[in-house]
Amino acid sequence: MNVIEISNIRLLNQRIENTEFGSPNEVVRWMGAMQAQDYSMAKWAVGIRLIHSTEDAIENALNRGEILRTHVMRPTWHFVSADDIYWLLELTAPKVKSLLRSRHKELELTDAVHDKTAMIIGKAMSKGVCLTGEELSKEFAKADIVTDGNRLYHLLLYAELNGLICSGPVKDKKQTYALLRERVPLRKVYTRDESLAELAKRYFSSHGPATIPDFAWWSGLSVKDAGMALEFVKAYFVSETIDSKKYWFAALSPGVNHRKTTIHLLPAFDEFLISYKDRSASLTMTDNKKIISDNGIFRPAIVINGQVSGLWKCSGKNKNRMIEINYLQPQGKPVKNQTTEAAIKLGAFLGDATQISFKSN
């Protein structure tokens, strides 16, 4: 196995290629968790890993509470399966809260403030009531809790990490929050070692080949805990050392690397890139700043045979939907034709007839 093969194997293990999944929950469970701060792009991240997917199917799964959009692992939004929310929070929330401590001190969000907001949330949202962030802000204001200056985001983030709230159904085109215990009946909570083992098994199955530092970055665990987690499940995997780095992954099927040209329009912040500390298998240092901004924004990428080879963007809607293709290097007609097919797949997901334009190199 070489560095180029790593990226192609990841396409298969992440189910960007040859997926067998028919429901959003299957995808999210397989992946363990999927970064989702860009809501529209995150829906496509699930959709590209589904058979005959539509944006409505992802929305419906979220509205039914089969998958949730909440904060776990690193302090950012993720999609997680409702089946996994409790043990993931139990495992990762303490580390995330410790990372937020200094910021909360700056915002004067004390334990007393968090306790007070928790009481307000519990009272306002009991018996199945789902509220938007704006509606919760008004409830906090009644109790003289200040929510400006990014305080509302952190108040709700902390309530998520404490297992009090999670995403609710969309209401008037706005996302809502729901009480977690009402949204998702309490599931079995694993021991810490069992949770570490489960998370490692999910990650290296769905994201491998990957290293322990990759897993630590993705999960938010310390490198020590990430290594211990892998030890629990390493019997399920094989490893190869390339350029002094040890990669772990499930054993490959014969001939897995002998495939035709593949092209995918991956969303911003897709797991194919963001879930690895070292992204050099798919993204060169030369192109890195074109795909990832200085402040950590991952742009939508065109991936050809596992290599980031361009950017795309989508504008308009319905009959005016336009997908603009911008390759990093000039490409011939066969690649352009296959890119067009990938763009049509995205248009079908969105439910639109899609127009496609190619930006001159």
Task: Profile the largest sheet.
Answer: 5 strands, mixed
* Total beta strand runs: 13
Helix-strand topology string: HHEHHEEHHEHHEEHHHHEEEHHEEEHE
What portion of residues is helical? 40-55%
Rounded to the nearest angstrom, the radius of gyration is 21 Å
Shape descriptor reads globular
Give the N-terminus to C-terminus distance in angstroms: 33 Å
What does this structure look like?
- The chain is α+β, with helices and mostly antiparallel strands and 361 residues long.
- Among the domains are: 34-183, no CATH class; 263-358, no CATH class.
- It has 15 helices and 13 strands.
- The strands form four sheets. A five-stranded mixed sheet has the order 9-10-11-12-13, sandwiched between helices. Strands 1-3-2 form a three-stranded antiparallel sheet. A three-stranded antiparallel sheet has the order 4-6-5.
- Strand 5 and strand 6 form a beta hairpin.
- Helix 5 packs across helix 10 (192-207), helix 10 (192-207) crosses helix 12 and helix 11 (212-219) packs across helix 12 (223-233).
- The two termini are 33 Å apart.
- The mean pLDDT is 94.
How would you concisely characterize the structure shown here?
The protein has about 350 residues and is α+β, with helices and mostly antiparallel strands. About 45% of the residues lie in helices and about 15% in strands. The protein has helices at about 5-15, 25-30, 40-45, 55-65, 85-105, 110-125, 135-140, 150-160, 180-185, 190-205, 210-220, 225-235, 270-275, 285-290, 335-350, and strands spanning about 35, 65-70, 75-80, 130, 165, 175-180, 240, 245-250, 265, 300-305, 305-315, 320-325, 355-360.
